[in-house]
Amino acid sequence: MSLFRIVQKNLKKNLSFYSLYLGSVAFVLMIFYFSISFGSNDLIVSRLMGDNKLQAMIKVVLPLLMAFVLFYMSYSNTFFMKRRMKELSIYALLGFNKRKVILILFLENIFICLLALGIGIIVGGILYVILIQIVIQWLGVSLNMSSIVWFNSDAVLITSSFVVLVLIVLLFSNYKFIRKHTLLDLVKVEGTRERPIQLKLWKAIVGFVALVAGYILALDIKRGVDSLWVTIGFAPLSMLTFVLVVVGTILSVHSFLPYTLNKLKAAKKSFYRDTMIITIPQFVQRITSNARTLIVSTLISAAALGLLGAGVITFYYPVKAIERTNPAAFEFPMQDVVLTQKALDIVKQQADTDHIESKQTTILEVQSSSKNVPFEYRAKEKAGFDLISLSDYQRSLVLQGDAQSMNDLTGNQAIFIKYNQNNVDESGKVYTLTPPQSNPIDVDIKYTTLENTISFANSVGTLVLSDALYQQIQATGVPSRQIMSIYGDGLRSNSVVHAQLSPLFKDNVYFQSAIGKRTTFLQANSSSLLISIFASTIFLISTGSILYFTNISNTYSKINDFRILEKLGYRKSKIKKIVNYQIFITLVIPYTLGSLHSIFALECFKALMPNLIGDSSAFWLPEIVAIGIFTVIYTVYYLITQYSSYKVIWGRKVKTPNISQPPHSKKYVSSYSKRRARSYK
């Protein structure tokens, strides 16, 4: 019997066993191929990512992705090696030397990787074309689709080269494993187990305290200028927080969780039940024996969730903030009367005139001698404020659809329009305005608001004054400028109007278009979001596969225990319940800790971003999306693992290779003992 025939039979016999591994590897290679195809297309990059940001991101993400894929496939390969050691030992007993055993494993890996590569390239190419069409339609970009083909020779070459690298790594791993084991080791290796970790109270306490301390330090950044992150420094605090969380994770999984579960034995009413008396000791054993896998899965899941959440936040939040940074559909300074009228005529011609409103606002520029002027207002050439009248402000709010019931301002009272949401309350503060050729005027901040009516490009540091005080300061001859704001139903998404107005204000940074800013941002960041989602999903799916293999391996090792339970009178439903508990504990630890780690990491990330809209949903909604994807992936893996475990326990037994007929002649059989001894000395 040839080696190829043996490999063919092995793969056919273990097809169901390898199916999830094959699917996960094909998915990884699909995303790998897609990412390279996306970044290597110069036309796509120039039209969607003119600054080559996508290519730079791919150069950073792909090496990390390649390293993780190598780790994942090496781990999976080791799992399959341990599951098949008895079978390989039978080959050794038949006279196959170690070189032939390694060759059999290598040929099997070649077949699986080539099949996964073919599936990945075909599906990845189709996905690439479909997603490109979706992105083009979404962004409204005109692009010749004939230049977008699913087969990219450069991407195929790079992906194939990576597969060759994977095969070399697996070959070396198998060679190292087989060479260091004797024949007796091969027979016994499947039954070996990691030694249980001795549970120590001090390790459990240190792990829990370190984890809580890391979380507290992460939240401390939200105190702003009073936090330790500012007084000590961002770099040392971020490193300390990272070390505390990692150490806390390791010791919590190694010691705290097993120690806590072990103490549940003292609760006799809960422990001495038909299922709990079996599951709790099994929980402790599974956590301690699989501690390294659980720790790695937790940290990788946390990193993937953090990457996914940060990617969604940086994409979703600026889009949401456009509603505030550009309150009007179109806005521009009225520097030329003829140009202004031409712009208004274009809007009236291309939009429904019954729902178009234009508003002219005169902004007064006044300096301030106060020393406590906020930073964004000191960023000007000379510290000061932009002043608008209360009547203009209220009218603009009505046109925006954000009308608020406000009490009239009296005397020198003012409304302070904040640039971003922070912990500083300006209410009650007094600022001194110094108009030219006039005495200083102290204005009292009645209350603050985030409701600005002029875009930040044209006004930052805005105070709303009563009409009387506004006119008094205007009469002093302070510098002023006029801003035209245009509102209308559906005008914020009218790309036709934007296309005709843009040439009129070419290279004018003060011309603001809501649809233009949104389109520019989407074109610059959609591809990056896509890459981050795919990379995060690969990490989550790979960790789910690792936990799947771990659970299946544990189930194989406990088959005899389950059969003993059946003989003791346990019903099938009870045994299924025990199996479900055991699967659940290995999945819930990375899920819970990974989610918590990512939440606190994203809290730090959010604190570094200015909150321009004051709407917390713009921050927590992306977190929910990330954890929701995580939940779906792990739920699917739980169901798959549950089904596979049932099949291992009650399904057909895995048959050993058909060795009743030796592959060679009688001479081969008679000399088998000598060759075996010579090969495994």
What does this entry look like structurally?
- The protein has 681 residues and is of the alpha+beta class.
- The chain contains 25 helices and 9 strands.
- A hairpin with a 7-residue loop joins strand 5 (430-433) and strand 6 (441-449).
- Helix 14 packs antiparallel against helix 23 and helix 20 packs parallel to helix 23 (617-650).
- It is elongated.
- The two termini are 25 Å apart.
> Mind telling me the C-alpha Rg?
33 Å
Total number of helical segments? 25
How far is the first residue's CA from the last residue's CA? 25 Å
How confident overall, as mean pLDDT?
78
List low-pLDDT spans.
652-681
Strand order in the sheet with the most strands: 5-6-4-7-3-2-8-1-9
Number of strands: 9
Percent strand equals 5-15%
**What would you call the structural class?**
alpha+beta
Largest sheet: 9 strands, mixed
Instruction: Report helical residue fraction.
Output: 55-70%
Describe the global form. elongated
Question: What topology does this entry show?
Answer:
Elements: H1 3-13, H2 15-40, H3 42-48, H4 53-83, H5 85-93, H6 98-139, H7 153-179, H8 183-188, H9 201-220, H10 228-231, H11 234-263, H12 268-271, H13 276-289, H14 291-325, E1 330-333, H15 337-350, E2 356-367, H16 375-378, E3 384-389, H17 390-400, E4 413-417, E5 430-433, E6 441-449, E7 462-465, H18 467-474, E8 480-488, H19 495-501, E9 512-513, H20 514-557, H21 559-567, H22 572-607, H23 617-650, H24 666-670, H25 672-679
Parallel strand pairs: 3-7, 4-6
Antiparallel strand pairs: 1-8, 1-9, 2-3, 2-8, 4-7, 5-6
